[in-house]
Amino acid sequence: MGDISASKEASEENSKQPKGYSGLPAKCINGALAGVAGVSCIFPIDLVKTRLQNQQVIDGKRMYKNLFDCFVKTAKADGIRGLYKGFGVNVTLISPEKAIKLVGNDLFRYYLQREGKQMGLHREMLAGGGAGLCQVIITTPMEMLKIQLQDAGRKIQRKKIPGMGTVPEVPTAKMNPSLTRAFSASTTAEVTPSALTIARNLMQAKGVFGLYRGLGATLMRDIPFSMIYFPLFAHLNAMGIEHENGRATFQHSFMCGCLAATVASLSVNPVDVIKTRLQLLQQAPGEHTYTGIRDCAAKIWKYEGPSAFFKGASCRLLVISPLFGIAQAVYYFGVGEFLLGIPKQWL
Predict the structure, then answer these.
(1) Positive or negative, the Cα torsion across 96, 102, 103, 104?
(2) 230 closest CA partner among 242, 218, 220, 222
(3) Is there a contact between 321 and 265 (Cβ–Cβ < 8 Å)?
(4) Is residue 344 within 8 Å of 265, Cβ to Cβ?
(5) Of 147, 160, 164, 166, which is closest to residue 76 (Cα–Cα)?
(6) C-beta separation of 22 from 342 below 8 A
(7) Which of 42, 131, 192, 315 could bond 49 through an S-S bridge, CB–CB 3.0 to 4.6 Å?
(8) What is the pTM of this model?
(9) Strand partners, 247
(10) Where is this region: Disordered (predicted)?
């Protein structure tokens, strides 16, 4: 009897382990694995998105007609490997970025939760916004380097097209010469520098702040995205939770992740276009340059129209939706929990 009683007490003690702390290492692993798996699957589409968002209409001409046209032209010009330009830096930094985002949301929810009360929507949004704020530490330099590599092929191709390399008579802003030299120092007409070379030149020219070009726009994108995504996913996923095991089915969680990411992604796409253009260190010949968020938004509206703020939106949906769907799949199978040997009753 004594052994049975001790066993019950141990079981009850295990079930009382705090969720806020016991699951964090596992969630770091889950976030890292989700990021790597997701990026590996959707990176070519992300490259197409970057090129579509950066292209400008010059004298009524545009380089790419749509998503498919961009994909085909890139593959023809650079081969299949060209579709994975910037993959190395992205897959390297996506692990800590996703871990910070997912763990950050869980931590903020843990500390904002009032005992015995259901978390209000404003607290859920605050937790999500906090996670978005934390992730830009990695997101900004990661995307800064990735965008240079992804867009380099577009600039090279543009120079080869008759009439596309001429400079139109429109006002352009002067680029920071030190930042421009940092990119062009290792760039020729046909060769793109590596992410390491770009990072080193930026550090030499502007210090660590050179890697955080476009930080303001990144904050304007990532904080609202997380404020929309995390609460929306939590409420949608709660609709499918089964009382027997306290979890939703894999299919339900996957679809909820995709749907929540779709809504959040569309909501912030205009800021994503601005961020992408601001982070580009060197525009193609004849394209506008920008001095800041307001200048960029004004020029896009004036010369390209409001529809330009949704350039690459279809690509972004094809990137973000499966990326977060995959993240939910990793959480569903509990890879991190399995590797760390965390009992399911703790989760």
Answers:
(1) positive
(2) 222
(3) yes
(4) no
(5) 160
(6) yes
(7) 315
(8) 0.77
(9) 242
(10) 1-20
